[in-house]
Amino acid sequence: MLLAINDLHVRYGNVEVLHGISLHVAEGEIVTILGANGAGKSTTLLSISGLVRPSEGEILFDGLALHKLAAHQVVQARISQSPEGRRVFGTLTVEENINLGAFSIRDKAKIARTRTWIYDLFPRLAERRQQLAGTLSGGEQQMLAIGRALMSDPKLLLLDEPSLGLAPLLVRAIFDTIRTINASGVTVVLVEQNAKAALKLAHRGYVLEVGRIILHGESKDLLTNPEVRNAYLGGS
pTM to 2 decimals? Predict the structure, then answer.
């Protein structure tokens, strides 16, 4: 098992937001975490990234106890995150943003190879490499956020709401690229409110409700589950 979260509790001050969740991700999988706003999805990713410290439980990645590591050590362990809201540096160029993602890599040839691969994945970024990131469209900024996350050569990529605010055509393009990234050998954990698109892309899914996992299983089973259909797929 590549990633195992066991009985994870997270508090913000006196408020507990994750109430002992457990989940696992095998190497090569795409696993999606679904749920309404405030369910604890982003907190789960921030805990994996080392940006939020759990109050109880453990996060194990490839034999490492992630819950004991600082955030920069988590990146060095080959986990990277594309955050909700993209958070690109608007006053830097596309290429400068991408290069920032390689801060943990010392091999210049490897950096160049990875950057070429990212431009192959996202030709629009290649066309705009000298453009300021703040002038890009929302979809282009999402591509840039994912590209920047890939620069650290992750074994595990965490994606937080990559479809947020994007037109359906762009969502399809972004999700097709995530499938390509996964096919290249990168394991993906996807937090997403677009439940139908996420379940069509992922191998398995977990449904979070107010800090607890209430359902999990194969994506094809969750797509036909009445509870999931009514709560997240518009009953369709």
Answer: 0.93
